[in-house]
Design a protein that fits this description.
heterotrimer, A mainly alpha, B alpha/beta, C mainly alpha, A: mainly alpha, 2 domains, 12 helices, globular, C: mainly alpha, MetI-like fold
């Protein structure tokens, strides 16, 4: 088990290197000069050159990259061009807000998604099943930012139940709309896969065995079907984390949420390279670590999986 | 000795599918006595498995439904029981062993967990004694190191061992009837005999009855006391084992007997086969269901379905020409 | 248990189980597709959209970029069916013309993903070994990369514009196709008929094009169809963030971005473009779902 986790962590290294490399190359291609962003207009050519040399951005790409990676190993993510602060401290400002929002969204996604999926499967062909199928199909077609705006219009403006945007004092009320918006697409997928996975599981022979033992339908569903049916759901939740974090940029923009997605988006527009790379890197690492956790949950659900033999999921 | 335990009368289980009504079981009747082994024989799709599932009302939902008939067990018509009441019978008074032990055990729970579950839902005992009991059951069905094996998952057992686990689970509450639905079909030939011996052995000890569903006539010949032959969802013949094998009255049974190799056969008959294939059970024509494949068919056979009735003490058959066959038999 | 009924029916009706030949697979799929009401609705939506985008000039009632100062923020009515925006432009005509951008981006971008993905997947699956490991690790990187952020970064580098949107969405989407194609190659690579083709001296390229591709066509076409919907949403998101198609061209996402400040005063500004996106994506999703069910009825 420990060996497996260590190996998985080692496997992350090439992914992290790849992500940083791609980001580096992308940003290297931007024609603008970071030095001129920092210094005001009308700075002398000499001053610009000095600054470039000091920042190390006059060096070739591979030297810059190696230097960055060297710093990264020591935990240094560099300094923001715009704010002249360490990237790590900027990220520390924004990340907690994003993580809290993402957690709220994941909780909604898992609970609401799984429960509606189970109801649809158990009451197959009923009104509820149709309702779940129709609404989940629609949900994946709705752009999150539009959904957010609709929520704002209805619950914020017309009904006045919830604050329209921002984090306010950070109380729960402020989380409800953005979290549901962020969760919407993933929630729909979770509900659909739970439904189809439940239906498939219910067709297995061991479910007939469970009924033949004299178990009540509730026990058959709750004990024998649910655990088996959750296996593909867990995979999906893991894969969805990326969508969730990507969707955060849009949700945070619509709701004016002081999160990391919006921070990275602004950093991209402002050519604030260190913030872009550092922020994205942390996102990718969170994604990878969460996936590792998902794999461990997976093994708990399915005893047939043994860590020593498995490569990766899919 | 001949104490009636289960009487199924005119059982009808139909599936209401989008493509039409499938009469999977249509008018099945039989009697199972105490300490008896009843074999139900038939081809794939003949309705023998659905008959077994109907007894405990385990028919696949939402299409399947028992639409008629009675299943008398212990003075109660268990076909008419509600969900809550039938649960008290399932796995307790009547239990089942299925065809594919690999698929019939839940892969994500330990074997011990699954056996104990069976015990604890029907008996009011604590976890520790349930565990002890589960261990004794595993020991009884011949699984070595039962104490340790309780913590194993189904995938850690071989096919034969898994079926032993299924049997242990079925026996957990000392049922009066064990329904075994092709219990050895999915197993190696070498293991098949062991499993059947085990079942019959244990049931002899506890004095219970077995309903053995199979398409293997050799197995029936060896273990069954009585046989019901099914074809196209309908019973065609039901009698003692000897009568079915040596004095069959239905052309289908006759054909079946011809299609097995018998070691004790004195005549040097060639193995015969039945031409054609089993019928589709949707939109059946009105006549005898075996008509298209029957060697002895007459004109009248296509018009009405012959009633399944007792033509000789203890011998039921559904054939328009049974009287002639009976006479032939009497004439030698 | 439904599986049991299914098996039961098959056993009873004597239908062959899974022994379909390829041509009957497609014939069967087509039959099931045309019987599927939702798939037909999806197909109709797609057809309608193609029609709208081809004949926008005839369907529009106004010039989509024409500003009429005195008609700013008019609610929907007989003159402006969907109302006007802050600059007095007709929203109905802008939505009609916007379909061109969305359809174009959806189809071209997915086409690019498909080409890259099939190429990479073919190399990885067919040749295996080092090239497989390398390509799949690169695919992992693309999976781990937050999709929208990646698109934003690429757009920031390339600059806004419709061609750059093709490239950004196209590049980001290839990994799924590659993985899909690779796994279907792996599953049929060692089948007898491939061995036979190889024994007869067919070249690798020929084997992939002639034998493997037609057999892995079904899952790829299903995923491709659904992916068009995703691409349209991503384009809308990029335009919403100001990185996509530039004004005054009428892109739906960009119209939504403009409507943000008038959620209260002019909700029609956000309502109609949003509905247009939803219907377009719905068309592709329904049709994709229908295709999947048609190719593999058991998945339903």
């Amino acid at each position: 088990m420990l060996y497996y986790i260590l190996r998985r962590i080692l496997q992350m290294v090439p992914v992290i290197i790849g992500v940083t490399l791609i980001l580096f190359m992308l940003i290297y291609m931007i024609p603008e000069d970071p030095a001129s962003l920092i210094l005001q207009k009308g700075a002398t050519e000499q001053a610009l050159a000095n600054l470039r040399a000091k920042m190390g951005i006059d060096r070739p790409l591979h030297i810059q990259y190696l230097r960055y990676m060297g710093n990264l190993v020591r935990g240094d993510l560099g300094t923001s061009y715009r704010y002249r602060r360490p990237v790590s401290s900027i990220l520390a400002d924004y990340y907690p807000n994003s993580i809290r929002l993402a957690l709220a969204a994941i909780i909604i996604e898992i609970f609401v998604g799984i429960i509606t999926g189970i109801i649809a499967a158990v009451k197959r062909y009923s009104f509820w099943d149709t309702l779940v199928t129709v609404s989940t199909t629609l949900a994946v077609c709705v752009p999150v930012f539009w959904l957010g705006m609709i929520f704002q219009n209805i619950f914020g403006l017309r009904l006045g139940w919830l604050p329209i945007s921002g984090m306010g004092d950070g109380s729960l009320r402020y989380y409800i709309m953005p979290a549901f918006t962020l969760a919407s697409v993933s929630l729909a997928y979770v509900a659909r896969i739970t439904r189809s996975s439940m239906l498939e599981t219910m067709s297995n022979d061991y479910i007939t065995t469970a009924f033949a033992k004299g178990l009540s339908p509730g026990m058959v569903i709750g004990k024998h079907a649910l655990k088996n049916a959750m296996i593909p759901v867990v995979t999906l939740v893991g894969l969805n984390l990326g969508t969730l974090m990507g969707g955060a940029v849009l949700t945070e923009t619509v709701f004016n949420w002081p999160g990391v997605g919006r921070a990275i988006y602004h950093a991209i527009l402002e050519r604030d390279t260190p913030v872009v790379i550092g922020g994205t890197l942390v996102l990718v690492m969170i994604f990878l670590i969460l996936n590792l956790i998902i794999d461990i949950v997976y093994a708990y659900l399915d005893p047939r999986i043994r860590f020593d033999r498995r490569e990766s999921r899919v | 000795m001949n104490e009636k335990l289960l009487e199924v009368r005119d059982l009808k289980t139909h599936f209401f599918t989008p493509d039409g009504v499938v009469k999977a079981v249509d008018g099945v009747s039989f009697i199972l006595n105490k300490k008896e082994v009843l074999g139900i024989v038939g081809e794939t799709g003949s309705g023998k498995s659905v008959t077994a599932l109907s007894i405990l009302n385990l028919i696949p939902q939402p299409f399947g439904r028992i639409v008629g008939g009675r299943i008398m067990f212990d003075g109660v018509d268990i076909a008419g029981l509600g969900q809550k009441q039938i649960q008290k019978y399932r796995g307790n008074r009547i239990s089942m062993v299925f065809q594919d032990p690999a698929a019939s055990l839940n892969p994500v729970y330990t074997v011990g967990n699954q056996i104990m579950e069976s015990i604890m839902i029907h008996q009011k005992i604590d976890k520790r004694s349930a565990r002890k009991k589960a261990m004794r059951l595993l020991d009884m069905v011949g699984i070595p190191e039962p104490q340790r094996r309780l913590n194993s998952y189904p995938h850690q057992f071989s096919g034969g061992m898994r079926q032993r686990v299924m049997i242990a689970m079925a026996l957990a509450n000392s049922p009066s009837i064990l329904i075994a639905d092709e219990p050895t079909t999915a197993l190696d030939v070498t293991i098949q005999a062991q499993i059947l011996e085990l079942m019959v052995d244990v049931m002899n000890k506890t004095g219970s009855s077995i309903i053995l569903i199979t398409h293997d006539l050799g197995v029936v010949a060896k273990y069954a006391d009585k046989v019901m032959v099914m074809y196209g969802g309908k019973p065609v013949e039901f009698s003692d084992i000897d009568k079915i094998f040596y004095e069959p009255l239905h052309p289908y049974t006759n054909g079946l007997m011809g299609s097995i190799a018998r070691l004790d056969s004195k005549k040097k008959d060639r193995l015969t086969t039945i031409d054609g294939s089993p019928p589709s059970l949707i939109d059946l024509p009105p006549g005898c269901i075996f008509y298209p494949r029957c060697k002895y068919r007459m004109e009248g056979c296509a018009r009405s379905y012959p009633r399944f009735k007792e033509v000789k003490p203890g011998h039921h058959v559904a054939c328009h020409r049974h009287a002639e066959f009976l006479k032939e038999e009497a004439d030698g | 248990m439904y599986e049991r009924v299914y098996k039961l029916q098959n056993a009873i009706s004597g239908e062959p189980g899974n022994k379909y030949s390829r041509s009957s697979l497609y014939k069967d799929a087509w039959r099931r597709l045309t019987r599927n009401r939702l798939a037909i609705i999806g197909l109709s939506i797609i057809a309608a959209l193609i029609f709208i985008s081809l004949f926008s000039p005839f369907l529009a009632t106004h010039d989509p970029t024409l500003r009429v100062k005195e008609d700013s923020l008019k609610p929907p009515g007989s003159q402006y069916w969907f109302g006007t925006d802050i600059l007095g432009r007709d929203i109905y005509s802008r939505v009609i013309y916007g379909s061109r951008i969305s359809m174009l981006v959806g189809i071209v971008a997915v086409g690019i993903s498909l080409l890259i993905g099939l190429g990479m997947g073919a190399v990885a699956g067919y040749f295996g070994g080092f090239s497989d490991a390398l390509i799949m690790r690169i695919a992992d990187i693309f999976f781990a990369f937050p999709y929208i952020l990646g698109a934003i970064a690429i757009m920031a580098v390339l600059g806004p514009g419709i061609v750059n949107i093709f490239v950004a969405i196209g590049i980001l989407g290839w990994a799924h196709f590659a993985r899909l194609f690779r796994s279907s190659i792996l599953s049929i690579k060692n089948k007898e008929y491939i061995e036979a083709a190889r024994a007869l001296g067919a070249s690798n390229f020929r084997i992939i094009i002639k034998h493997i591709f037609p057999n892995s066509f079904a899952p790829i076409i299903v995923f491709g169809t659904m992916n068009v919907g995703t691409a349209i949403i991503v384009e809308a998101a990029l335009s919403f963030l100001g990185l996509g198609v530039q004004p005054p061209a009428p892109a739906w996402g960009q119209m939504l971005s403009e409507s943000m400040r008038y959620i209260n005063t002019a909700p029609w500004m956000m309502f109609f473009p949003g509905m247009a996106i939803v219907f377009t994506v719905l068309g592709f999703v329904l049709f994709g779902d229908g295709l999947r069910d048609a190719f593999d009825p058991r998945m339903k």
